[in-house]
Amino acid sequence: MLFGKEHVERYRATDGAEGHEWNGTTVLLLTTTGRNSGEPRTTPLIYRPDGGAYVVVASNGGAPDHPQWYKNLQADPQARVQVGAEEFGARARTAAPGEKSRLWSSMAEVWPQYDEYQKSTDRDIPVVLLEPVS
């Protein structure tokens, strides 16, 4: 089972042939700019496409604080995304309250643990749209 640094390495080395499909769902690589270090930080995340965007959840496993990648996007919403062999620039935005419910339901279909994560924290877990930019 891959996840974390090894997942990123295998995904990149195989253009997603290993790592895109994971535990019955699909994973993309999100590269943000560290808000303190200025260094690129890459995280494998479960995703679903939605129109032209890619949806990810800042669950952090239900921890009380947002994941580092989400904090980085709050500081700088420009990111790089890799889906399979395709890499592109994206701009991140947090789903508005009116769209979050639909997107959350869609994500919980592919990863039901998201509902458990939300129950385990007082934090409102953000849903993020990664919108490709040219």
TrEMBL record:
<protein>
    <submittedName>
        <fullName>Deazaflavin-dependent oxidoreductase (Nitroreductase family)</fullName>
    </submittedName>
</protein>
<dbReference type="InterPro" id="IPR012349">
    <property type="entry name" value="Split_barrel_FMN-bd"/>
</dbReference>
<dbReference type="GO" id="GO:0005886">
    <property type="term" value="C:plasma membrane"/>
</dbReference>
<dbReference type="GO" id="GO:0016491">
    <property type="term" value="F:oxidoreductase activity"/>
</dbReference>
<dbReference type="Pfam" id="PF04075">
    <property type="entry name" value="F420H2_quin_red"/>
</dbReference>
<comment type="similarity">
    <text>Belongs to the F420H(2)-dependent quinone reductase family.</text>
</comment>
<dbReference type="InterPro" id="IPR004378">
    <property type="entry name" value="F420H2_quin_Rdtase"/>
</dbReference>
<dbReference type="GO" id="GO:0070967">
    <property type="term" value="F:coenzyme F420 binding"/>
</dbReference>
